[in-house]
UniProtKB/TrEMBL annotation:
<dbReference type="Pfam" id="PF04616">
    <property type="entry name" value="Glyco_hydro_43"/>
</dbReference>
<dbReference type="InterPro" id="IPR023296">
    <property type="entry name" value="Glyco_hydro_beta-prop_sf"/>
</dbReference>
<dbReference type="InterPro" id="IPR006710">
    <property type="entry name" value="Glyco_hydro_43"/>
</dbReference>
<dbReference type="InterPro" id="IPR050727">
    <property type="entry name" value="GH43_arabinanases"/>
</dbReference>
<comment type="similarity">
    <text>Belongs to the glycosyl hydrolase 43 family.</text>
</comment>
<dbReference type="InterPro" id="IPR035992">
    <property type="entry name" value="Ricin_B-like_lectins"/>
</dbReference>
<dbReference type="Pfam" id="PF14200">
    <property type="entry name" value="RicinB_lectin_2"/>
</dbReference>
<comment type="pathway">
    <text>Glycan metabolism; L-arabinan degradation.</text>
</comment>
<feature type="domain" description="Ricin B lectin">
    <location>
        <begin position="334"/>
        <end position="411"/>
    </location>
</feature>
<feature type="signal peptide">
    <location>
        <begin position="1"/>
        <end position="23"/>
    </location>
</feature>
<keyword id="KW-0378">Hydrolase</keyword>
<dbReference type="InterPro" id="IPR000772">
    <property type="entry name" value="Ricin_B_lectin"/>
</dbReference>
<keyword id="KW-0326">Glycosidase</keyword>
<protein>
    <submittedName>
        <fullName>Family 43 glycosylhydrolase</fullName>
    </submittedName>
</protein>
<keyword id="KW-0732">Signal</keyword>
Length: 478
C-alpha cells in the first residue's frame, strides 16, 4: 500500500534549508516537499505545489530560494463537499497535486484518499492567476471504487501532446498506472474516453506516473518501491518509452512495463534517500525536474530537489550538476540586424509563405532566393530574447493562437511582446555556428519534420538534438 498517511508526521515546517553536495545547486528557504507537482511559472515567479492539508505551495523568483505561500489552495479544514461521499473518512490531507496552464486558466489537479485504500478521487480546481489566485473547484475528474484491481485515482500528472491534446496519467499500487485524454475546455475526461493501463498492476509498487515527449518517443517516469518512511524509504524512479501515448512502454532492455520493471534513472544516493515523484518544467532549453527526497542529513525529512533532464541515445539522464538558467539564457552573440534563417537538415530557409507579410500568413521553409519575405529582422531585449520580424512589413513570427505546445505552428502576427512572439537563440555546440531557436514561452524549439520539403510550415517541437531543429543564422543585406 502507499504510505501517504505517514506524510502527516513529516508536516511542512517553515525556514529549513539544505546545502547540496558540491556538484549540485543549493536550494534555500522553505523547501519542504512531498510528491511535488511539476514546477510552473507565471511571469517571473515559479510555483511549487505539494502534498499537505489544503494543498500547500511555495514560490521562487530564481528556482533556488523558496518562500512559503501566504495561504493554502483550500482554507484550513475546508474542502469541496463532493469529496465527503466520494471518499468517506477524508480529513483534508490532499496528496500529490499537479498543475497545467490551458484554456486561460491554471488547472490544479489533486488527490483525495485515505491510507491503504483505493477508494479515491482526483479533483480539479482552477484560477486565472497564481499571483492573485481565486480558486474555483470544478469537481471530480476520475474516481476509484476501492476494489483490489482498481486504477487507484491518485497521483495525477498532466501532459500536452504535440497535437495539443492533453492527457492525465495517474495510479498507485492496486491496478497499476493508467492514461486518459482530458477535455481542455472543461479539465475533465473527454466524453466516452476510457483509461488505458500502461504499467504495473496486480498490487505491485507502481505509482506517481509522469509522461514526457522528446523526439519520436513518449517517456513514462514512474515511482517504484515505498515512500513515506523517512530514511527507510525505498522509492526510486524508473522509465520506459513508447511511440504511442497509450504504450506499450518498454524499458531499455525491451521489457514491457505492464509485466516487468522500468529502467532506473534516479535512486538513493548519499543523503538523497528515496527520491520520487518526477515533474518537469521546460524553460528555454532547460528541462527542470522536480522531485522530493528524504534528507539523510536531517532525520529523513522530505524536501524538494531540482535536477536537469537530458537525453542521450534516446534515453533520459538526470543530474544535479547544472547551473540554473545557463541553458535558458545561452543566447549567442547575434547582433540586431537582418538575417536569413536556414535549416541545417533541409537547407531551406524561413519564408513568409505567400510573400504578402500579412497577419496570419504561415511561416514556412522554402528555397532561398533573396526575396524580402525570406529576410528577417532580429532585435533583442534586455533579457536576451529576440523578436523575429518580417522584412516586408511590421508583422512578426508568433505561434498560432499563442500556443506553446509541441506541434504549434508559426505564422505572422501583430507584435505585442507576448511570450509566444519572443525567441531564445542557443548555440547547438556543433562548432559550425548553428543555433537552436526556442520559444521564450514554454521553451520548445522551432523545427520542421525530418523529411519535409519546401512549403512545410514551421512548428514547435520538444527539445532534441536533431538536425531539423538546428538553424544557421546568416546576415543578409536589407
Amino acid at each position: 500500500m502507499k504510505w501517504q498517511a505517514l506524510i502527516c508526521s513529516m508536516v511542512l515546517s517553515v525556514g529549513t534549508f539544505f546545502a547540496n553536495a558540491a556538484a549540485a545547486i543549493t536550494l534555500t528557504g522553505n523547501i519542504n516537499s512531498h510528491d511535488p507537482a511539476g514546477l510552473i511559472k507565471e511571469g517571473g515567479t515559479y510555483y511549487h505545489f505539494t502534498t499537505g492539508a489544503g494543498i500547500w505551495y511555495s514560490y521562487s523568483t530564481n528556482l533556488t530560494h523558496w518562500t512559503a505561500g501566504p495561504a493554502t489552495v483550500f482554507p484550513s479544514g475546508q474542502w469541496p463537499s463532493w469529496i465527503n461521499s466520494a471518499v468517506p473518512g477524508f480529513a483534508g490531507q490532499f496528496w500529490a497535486p499537479d498543475v497545467i496552464y490551458m484554456n486561460g486558466y491554471y488547472y490544479l489537479y489533486y488527490s483525495a484518499s485515505t491510507f491503504g485504500s483505493s477508494r479515491s478521487a482526483i479533483g480539479v480546481t482552477r484560477t486565472a492567476s497564481l499571483t492573485s489566485p481565486n480558486w474555483q473547484d470544478q469537481g471530480v475528474v476520475v474516481q476509484s471504487n476501492g476494489s483490489s484491481n482498481a486504477i487507484n485515482a491518485i497521483d495525477p500528472a498532466l501532459f500536452t501532446d504535440t497535437n495539443g491534446n492533453v492527457y492525465l496519467s495517474y495510479g498507485s499500487w492496486f491496478g497499476g498506472i493508467a492514461v486518459v485524454q482530458i477535455n481542455k475546455s472543461t479539465g475533465k475526461i473527454v466524453s466516452g474516453a476510457t483509461p488505458t493501463k500502461i504499467a504495473g498492476g496486480n498490487g505491485a509498487d507502481w505509482e506517481a506516473p509522469y509522461i514526457v515527449k522528446a523526439g519520436n518517443y513518449y517517456y513514462l517516469f514512474v515511482n517504484r518501491g515505498s515512500c513515506c518512511q523517512g530514511m527507510n524509504s525505498t522509492y526510486r524512479i524508473v522509465v520506459g518509452r513508447a511511440t504511442s501515448i497509450t504504450g506499450p512502454y518498454l524499458n531499455q532492455s525491451g521489457g514491457n512495463l505492464n509485466s516487468t520493471d522500468g529502467t532506473t534513472v534516479l535512486a538513493t544516493s548519499g543523503k538523497y534517500i528515496g527520491p520520487g515523484h518526477f515533474g518537469l518544467l521546460r524553460e528555454g532549453s532547460c528541462n527542470y525536474v522536480s522531485t522530493h527526497y528524504y534528507d539523510g542529513s536531517n532525520n529523513g525529512n522530505p524536501k524538494l530537489d531540482i535536477l536537469s533532464l537530458t537525453f542521450s541515445n534516446g534515453w533520459p539522464t538526470l543530474t544535479r550538476n547544472f547551473t540554473v538558467g545557463a541553458c535558458a539564457t545561452g543566447t549567442g552573440p547575434i547582433a540586431d540586424g537582418t538575417y536569413r534563417l536556414t535549416n541545417k537538415n533541409s537547407n531551406l530557409s524561413w519564408d513568409s509563405w505567400g510573400c504578402s507579410g500579412n497577419a496570419g500568413e504561415a511561416v514556412a521553409q522554402g528555397a532561398y532566393n533573396s526575396y524580402n519575405c525570406q529576410k528577417w529582422h532580429l532585435s533583442s531585449d534586455s533579457s536576451g530574447t529576440y523578436r523575429i520580424k518580417s522584412h516586408i512589413n511590421n508583422n512578426s513570427a508568433e505561434t498560432t493562437g499563442c500556443a506553446q505546445y509541441a506541434g504549434a505552428l508559426l505564422q505572422l502576427g501583430a507584435y505585442s511582446g507576448a511570450a509566444c512572439e519572443r525567441f531564445i537563440l542557443m548555440p547547438t555546440g556543433d562548432g559550425d555556428g548553428s543555433y537552436y531557436i526556442a520559444l521564450a514561452g514554454g521553451g520548445r524549439r522551432v523545427g520542421v519534420p525530418q523529411f519535409s520539403g519546401s512549403g512545410q510550415q514551421l512548428q514547435l517541437q520538444d527539445p532534441a538534438s536533431d538536425l531539423w531543429q538546428k538553424w544557421f543564422i546568416v546576415a543578409v543585406s536589407p
